[in-house]
Amino acid sequence: MSSSRRVRFVDVHGHRRAFIKTGSGPALLLLHGVACDHTTWDRVIAPLAKDYTVIAPDLLGHGQSAKPRGDYSLGGYANGMRDLLTILGVDRVTVVGHSFGGGVALQFAYQFPELTERLILVAPGGVGREVSPIIRLAAAPGFRQLMGVLTLPGVRQVNRTGLRLAHAARLPGTRDVDEIAKIYDSFASPGACAAVQQVLRGVVDLRGQFVTMADRAYLTEAMPICVVWGAQDPIIPSSHAHIAENLAPGAQVEIIEDSGHFPHRDHSQQFIRIVRDFMATTQPASYSATRRRELLSGDRGPRRGRGRGASRPLAALSS
Predict the structure, then answer these.
(1) pLDDT per residue as tens digits for the range 247-290
(2) 214-230 burial by CB neighbour count: b if 16+ within 10 A, else e?
(3) Which strands form 225-230's sheet, in the order they lie side by side?
(4) CA–CA separation, 274 vs 64, rounded Å?
(5) SS3 of residue 274 by DSSP
(6) How many CA atoms lie within 13 A of 268 on its CB side?
(7) What is the pLDDT of residues 193-206, one digit of tens each?
(8) Angle 177-186/153-168 helices, nearest 10 degrees?
(9) Predicted local confidence at residue 61, as pLDDT
(10) If you ran DSSP here, which 8-state letter would residue 34 be given?
(11) Rounded distance, CA 2 to CA 59, Å?
(12) Within 36-120, where are the H helices?
């Protein structure tokens, strides 16, 4: 890894936060999913850094960041990203969020529209209720105790071998086996496992996702938004992309064939092209406190045109 890609650290409210900051130009904030870290973006960071300032943090409770007993809510994560950007001297960003990171991106745009230029949501959480049974299980009581057994060295090796065999047999739900194996290994850390369960309990129960992006859509109507999904996503179904499209008319929706829950890894070059095209054909959102006050007061007013390259609406995540 080059010196520009080295992991850096900063304390935010007394807790260590790990991040990468590289490149120059308009800022992109890359937010990973639950139980992942900034390395989920490792195939796209360097190419994007040729044109943009790329900031890829490890969210609190993940990767090399601290794992305290603390606030792992969507709002807490959005606040943490605001504070990190303030420390780094970054005034406005396009937020790129994957899976749970997509939910954080939506929450960030809702809480801090004045800081948000655009949104790129990659298989984001919070669009519909359906989610993999594995995710629902991770939010259930007893998950940490179960993982304490399943991550014992000998048991873990057997399970990793089973994952590879299932993937080789093309069994359903095993497409993203490398990423799943990495997540599984991370649960060997009790702190990481506890943080992940606390994160998931804030958005998922045994019936699925209970936090939606529908009721506050009107608040950020002029936000350019792009939704990217893998057609064979085994974690959050790609049909949610069309729900997002209905909630945010005019949003750019990209379904990537032969791709699972990590399209930015499966087809990194295509993903990079989508990001660059979206950045080039949209203007950063402009924040108006007056318009926000009107919307909150019930004066929705006329809708703007939605041609390609024009500002597109954001369906904001309810908290």
Answers:
(1) 777 789 999 999 999 999 999 999 999 999 999 999 999 888 88
(2) eebbbbbbbbbbbbbbb
(3) 8-12, 15-22, 53-57, 27-31, 93-98, 116-122, 225-230, 252-256
(4) 29
(5) helix
(6) 10
(7) 788 878 887 887 77
(8) 170
(9) 93
(10) T
(11) 22
(12) 45-49, 74-88, 100-111
Rounded Cα distance between 274 and 257, Å, is: 14
CA gap 131, 137 in Å, rounded: 11
Q: Which of 297, 299, 281, 292 has its CA nearest to residue 316?
A: 292
CA distances from 36 to 56, 57, 248 (A): 12, 11, 27
Paired sense of beta strands 208-209 and 204-205, if any:
antiparallel
Q: For 154-174, what is the mean pLDDT?
A: 51
Pick from 187, 216, 227: which is nearest to 62 by CA?
A: 187
Q: How many residues does the chain have?
A: 319
Q: How confident is the model at residue 244 (pLDDT cuts 50, 70, 90)?
A: confident
Asked if the model's pLDDT at residue 307 lies above 50, the reply is: no
> Catalytic site residues?
99, 233, 261
Q: What are phi and psi of 264, to 5 degrees?
A: -70, -15
Tokens of 46: 């360097």
Using CA atoms, how far apart are residues 282 and 50, in angstroms rounded to an integer?
19
Encoded tokens for 259: 């791709």
Q: Which two tokens stand for residue 39?
A: 């390395």
| 254, 228 Cβ separation under 8 angstroms | yes
pLDDT at residue 1 in the model: 43
Report in angstroms the alpha-carbon separations of 277 from 134, 226, 255, 256: 34, 10, 15, 15
